[in-house]
Amino acid sequence: MMWRIWRVMAAGGHMGRAMLLAVVVLLAGAGLLVLSGWFISATALAGLAGAGGMFDVFRPAASIRGLALLRTTSRYGERWLGHDATLRGVAALRLMVLGGLARAPWRQLQRQRRGAALAQVVADTDTLDALPLRVVMPLVAGLIAIVAVGGLIGWLAGGVMALWIAGTHLGGAIAAGLWGARRGPRTAAQELAARAAFGRYTLDLIAARDDLAIHGRLPHQLAQAMQAEARVAEMAALQDLDERDAALILDLTRAATMGGALALGAMGVESGAFGPAIAGACFFAALALGEATAPLRRMVTEYGRIRDAAQRVGPMLEIPAPQGTAQTGAVLPLTIGDLTLGAGQVLAVSGPSGAGKTTLLERIAGLGPDAEPPIRLGGIRPTDWDEGELRARLTMVPQRPALIAGTLRDNLALAAPVAEDAELLAALQAVRLDHLRGGLDLWLKDGGAGLSGGEQRRLALARAILRQPQLLILDEPTEGLDAATARAVLAGIRQALPQAAIVLASHRPSDLQGADFRMELS
Amino acid sequence: MEQDGAERGAARRLLAPEARALRLAALLSVIAHLCWLPMAGCAAWVLAGLVEGRGVSLGVILGFVACGLARGGLNHLAEGVAQRAALGAVTRLRGELLQVVSGRAVLPRAGALALVAGDQAAAIVPYAVRYGMGFARAAVVPLVILLCAFAVSWAAGLILLLTGPVIPVFMALVGHAAGRASRAQFQEMSSLGALLADRVAALPDIRLLGAGQRLRDEFGRAAEALRARTMQVLGIAFLSSTVLELFAALGVAIMAVFCGFSLLGHFGFGMWGAPLSVGQALFLLMIAPEFYQPLRDLAAAWHDRASADAAAALIAQEMAEAPAMPGLGAPAVPLAVGGIALRGLRHRGIAYPDLDLRAGEALVLTGPSGSGKSTLLRLLAGLEAPEAGQVLVAGQALDAQNADAWRAGLGWMPQAVHFLDASLEENLRMGRAGDLDAALRSAAADHLPEGLPEGQATRLGERGAGLSGGEARRLTLARALYGAPGWILADEPTADLDAGTAERVAQGLLAAHRGGAGLIVATHDPALIAAIGREYRLGAP
Question: Which ipTM score applies to this complex?
């Protein structure tokens, strides 16, 4: 899952360049310390030997300054490229998620829309920006730096010293990582759940306070919220403990590595394997590599959060595309069993709640599984239609339509991106929504807030009219409208779309009058 | 970061009860970082011994490792102490905040408050942990290292002294501009997140309208434009930290070169007497980076304080003095059923005519929108205390002492119900005892639970888990009828309903009244006004 997400985010090659610079940063930092350590030991030896005048000071001194500059500039480049690549990656990921969600089975989408599940997926794509920045890049760069510096030490001071310094750093890093991975993902998921619960209880406490107070439930609700809070704090403390433990493991490893490097250096000098300047260089190399493993500390908890997010985002990327491919012809006539509905005709579907009116409409719209009675659109099974072609010919207005934040014009443009204002106004007039103050520029907040329920429904109907469908499917189009408005709206729709076949489900007897066909579900 | 005077220090004031623990954590953290001095001394002594050809004692190496272990352990401990104090503070703040705000007469917007109690309060933690310890380290560690450097060589001390202060100065200069830019940036970023969330919520409709590809194109363009702008801002921020790093790196490089030249005998200045020894040189080289590090840590944690202060100011604002709701909203034994009377009642600019109702009587409150019908219902329920005059219930003045008991005998039907994130059954019972099936029957809602995925156990959320407006209203009626209350207070019970549902709701209320319950209904509905008969008319505001 993580691999799949990484591939989406890393597509384009920007990550690779950032990673390269991250390696340069670490190596330049190590080089700076190693060279400085060597320089001081070597100059001291030369000074003691009275050969100070012979010592070439300028090349090492210039190299030290050069490495300092290289380190800072490559650091700048690494951060710039890394963040740039990550922003591109997150955008690509969000587009993939959006595409996947658009293909998701209809019922699943309907169900999730209301809950927090979708909002969570959106938040998860944000969490995943830590995958390249805080996990993959530091991990790969750190590994390369340890191996490269280990190689340098091996060349300078032999295999034992190299194995000790690179081996303990790697070992410490692995130990810290394993310690964090032990329960990190579980803690992260539980913390997230607890935070969400606290948010919901708090929201309920304030939004339903009057109801709670009247029923004597205020202390109970408060206690529930604070119980969730205690759980948040508990999980946060656990995460922090894991993070500190990882830091402790890394700190202890570093102290042991450097101490060992000193001891091995002393032994090497005594046995004549290498000079004191090399011993100094090795000690400073051990010190410098601490920077390569430092990001692991954050990584252990970050990884938990990332894995948790990846588990929710991943499936969104793998939702298969609809199978239908039929592209030609008209969706009319619509046949449902023996019934045949042609252009300009109306089918009214009625029946009590739960009789399956919505399910039938969804099946006609190609959103539900095939079942009895058989449904054909222009002779073709709805699910066999190509999605785009079908939507171009058939429009359904669900029982609870959704609007978007933006102007009325933005909302209508979803249906007709290039329509003139006159067309948009005509559609609004058809549903008796031309009286709204602000007209097309009226601003709606999230989900269409600012309009009443009946106005929202009528705006959705206007949207459907703009699609100019051959077949219009309406699920309870007049709920929440008074009888006069309901009649006017249905008449307006008919007038705007004289040739369209209309399938309409309703509880309201007056809506069903004048239909060419009736279908009573029980 | 720019902050106005009221915000500055707000987070510190909120953390006053944790001040001791945080001071201890800061102290431990400073000691941990000072451990580097003996470590550097031991390492320099060992390496110098190798250069000068005297032996190396194992004890010194062990001393080095021991100090390293102590450093790790102290850090672990310090952060633990700070973290525990910070989490405790957040819990305390959230508890106080919810307690105070939920006891208000008039409530803030729930979503905004949930945000303050959730994310904003959590902003205290990084401030208490990272900034608090970082500040202490930045105040002490560089000074100690500077003294050590001066003790060895005045020139080395001078190198640190001259390059060090540049860092905070630059930090302030660049941080100021970058902070402003990044805040603007952050707002834009969260608005893109909001855009995505909004569009995702509308995805089913977007699919039905065949607008999926267009939506993705739109979003792709918005994301690309945001990336370009973000990188401009980040460019500034990165540049500022690069400058800091450059000064630190150059400081270390100058130190290394100074030491090397001194050891070679090229430089004869900078010492207090004896020439620089190799051990002293290595020691200086090792402590130099630690001189800059605390300053850079503090720079990185700088915005923690700004966000914590902003959060603390928000919390303080939410907790500011405001009229409280009488009573606790706690369970209580209901008052004996009795009459209701209003005497000289005046609240929020509206004078309410006096009124006398006997137990079991019915009344409609009428008047234009804004004339105070809903407010009167809240006054009658004891949710607000009147500014002047009295509400008398069962012969006693309604006050903080008897409000809970009075409310325990009320059925309450708000205009827009907010269902709790709990099962339908819990939402209806609300902890009271009674015959739920009978209440559902009286509200013509006995078949509703069957239509829900898990019947009465279905969890309802903010939007009522797919209940229509009429269904939600009938369930609210069932809740008001449940437990046979002595009085039922209903606010616009039939508004926005189709004729059939409105009729059923009205019948449910009237049946309860016939069964003996007193009934007070605020409404515009002519049918309901006619059915109840007795009218209490409120004027224009």
Answer: 0.89
